[in-house]
Design a protein that fits this description.
Layout: H1 6-16, H2 19-27, H3 31-35, E1 38-39, E2 47-54, H4 63-68, E3 74-80, E4 83-92, H5 93-98, H6 103-128, E5 138-139, E6 149-151, E7 166-170, E8 183-189, E9 194-197, H7 201-204, E10 213-216, H8 227-230, H9 250-254, E11 256-259, H10 265-278, E12 285-288, H11 290-300, E13 305-311, E14 314-323, E15 326-332, E16 340-344, E17 349-353, E18 359-360, E19 369-370, E20 376-389, E21 396-399
Helix pairs in contact: 2-6
Length: 401
Amino acid sequence: MPALDMTSFAGALKEHYAGQRVQNMVYKDNPLLAMLPKYEKFGGKNYPLPLIYGNPTGRSATFSTAQGNKNGSKIVEFLLTRSSDYALASISNEVLEASVGNVNAFMEAATCEIDGAINAAARSLAIGCYGSGSGTIGQVATASLGVTTITLVNINDITNFEVGMVLKAATTEAATTIRAGSVTITAIDRDLGTLTASANWSTGIAAIAQNDYLVPDGDATLKVKGLAAWIPYAAPSATAFYGVDRTADVTRLAGVRQDGSAKPIEEALIDLASRIGREGGRPSHLFLDFSKYADLEKALGSKVQYISEKVGEVGFSGLQINGPKGMIKVIPDQNCPSNLGYMLSMDNWKLYSLGGAPKILDSDGMKMLRESSADAVEIRVGYYAALGCNGPAYSGVVKLS
């Protein structure tokens, strides 16, 4: 019997990993990523996203004054560029050939690694949709780093980490300065918010310090610019964002910010919704991490109203609150930072990508590649994408206690 070759394997892979199956795997536990409108034909060099943030100013009760004060509409153009991300997996040829003649066993043998690669890329994109583009996923709380186990400043960030992940340290959240060296995670305590490395952290990264930020190797400053970039909690500086200086009108070009850390969660959310409403927005969705979602659910008590949201074949549960311009669906998302809530007018947001995001990379027609230095084949999963918003003022971020 001839050995299973690349062509016959690719055919089975295509059938088993049809678009709908991949989509279900990607969206299952990533609500924001699932609910974002999609545009999958983002080709070319960039994608222009124009925005009018000011009306003509030639208006006055006096004609001559109106004529003298004429100015045109204020228009900017965000030039979106794609960020790329990859997840690779290898499958032994012995495993593949040993499964020839038994389709179920064959697919079971390969499914673990292929599913894992798809999920890794999906989680990376889902986390990135909330991020600033820096790639940082947690911050060091431990003061003395001559140890193998450290604690995160925010223990809820533990959901961003995986055993086997190779990490670098950055001096700031922007990750523009990366310290030399790296560590590999060998154990995670998801209750305590601790990460254990194969050696002392200061051995792997000699200059690592308390309050440094952790970033997966190769990710620094290269990830998708997510909500933290489009509607940052700290008002943006004059540094160009996709070619735009947003200081001309920070709210209309970079969203609404609300400090609700000293208030009960329901009051903080009402204040944010009211401010967005004042700007003309009709927020439709609010994303919280699970702990803050639980706080809101408890605060509402008997007044809580539960809902369900469905995207294709995938469903999500949540609740709803009253906003000044309609009901707002509240969805818990493990990828949302625990100290922030993002209230979005979803019609103004879109994930622009070159094909599916993520997808199996097979532009050469081969879904599997023979490895040159091992008796194995490789599958490549990835995406090329950018998050865009044509109405930042209609969405906002709130800091929670």
